[in-house]
């Protein structure tokens, strides 16, 4: 397969997560697999479970990360978070980039599932590319409310170029 580039915004987000070699990570909305590629490159005994509602997203992630799948470091499934039964009992980190679920509607059940599965001290990392600056306050307010409502402590980080807002929700 031809070498695929990884967007700087994805590199920044994964770097901010500080993935450790033994971490168990859930990626929500794996899309083209760039995040999975970076996360898996940092894992040794840890594992990444990546999900996407889209069949094409799952296929692209599997193709891009075939070596990680073969090595057992990566599992990819077509499913949405609402119906997910996480195969890993406890997660160190959860990662999502441009997944609107957390700010477009009430997602108490999905966030409760994450709170149940994320280890104390673990975190949910939600990132949004702010292509319209006026949306950022709404995204931060609504996503934060959904996370805080299920017992997470939320902090906000921003990258200026390209404009990305991140919410870090700690258990």
Explain how this protein is built.
Strands 3-2-1-4-5-7-6 form a seven-stranded mixed sheet, sandwiched between helices. The model has no long low-confidence stretch (mean pLDDT 92). It has helices at residues 8-17, 34-42, 55-64, 66-70, 101-104, 108-117, 136-148, and strands at 24-28, 47-52, 74-78, 91-97, 118-129, 153-159, 164-170. The protein is of the alpha/beta class and 171 residues long. It has a single domain (8-170), classed as Vaccinia Virus protein VP39 (Rossmann fold). The protein is built from seven helices and seven strands. Pfam families: Methyltransf_25. InterPro entries: Methyltransf_25, SAM-dependent_MTases_sf. Residues 25-122 form the Methyltransferase domain.
Reported by name, the CATH topology is Rossmann fold
Query: In sequence order, what are the helices and strands, one letter per element?
Result: HEHEHHEEHHEHEE
Strand order of the largest sheet: 3-2-1-4-5-7-6
Strand content: 25-35%
Mean pLDDT: 92
Helical content class: 25-40%
Oligomer: single chain
Uncertain segments = none
State the end-to-end distance.
39 Å
CATH architecture: 3-Layer(aba) Sandwich
The assigned structural class equals alpha/beta
Keywords: Methyltransferase, Transferase
Pfam family, one: Methyltransf_25
Protein name: Class I SAM-dependent methyltransferase
GO molecular function: methyltransferase activity
């Amino acid at each position: 397969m031809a070498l695929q580039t990884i967007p700087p915004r994805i590199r920044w987000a994964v770097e901010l997560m500080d993935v450790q070699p033994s971490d168990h990570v859930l990626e929500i909305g794996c899309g083209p697999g760039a995040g999975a590629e970076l996360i898996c490159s940092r894992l040794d005994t840890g594992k990444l479970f990546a999900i996407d509602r889209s069949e094409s997203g799952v296929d692209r992630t599997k193709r891009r990360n075939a070596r990680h799948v073969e090595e057992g470091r990566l599992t990819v499934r077509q499913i949405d978070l609402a119906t997910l039964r996480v195969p890993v009992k406890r997660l160190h980190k959860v990662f999502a980039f441009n997944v609107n679920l957390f700010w477009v509607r009430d997602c108490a059940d999905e966030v409760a599932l994450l709170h149940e599965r994320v280890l104390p001290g673990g975190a949910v990392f939600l990132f949004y590319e702010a292509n319209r600056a006026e949306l950022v306050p709404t995204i931060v307010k609504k996503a934060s409310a959904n996370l805080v409502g299920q017992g997470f402590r939320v902090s906000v980080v921003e990258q200026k170029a390209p404009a990305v807002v991140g919410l870090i929700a700690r258990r």
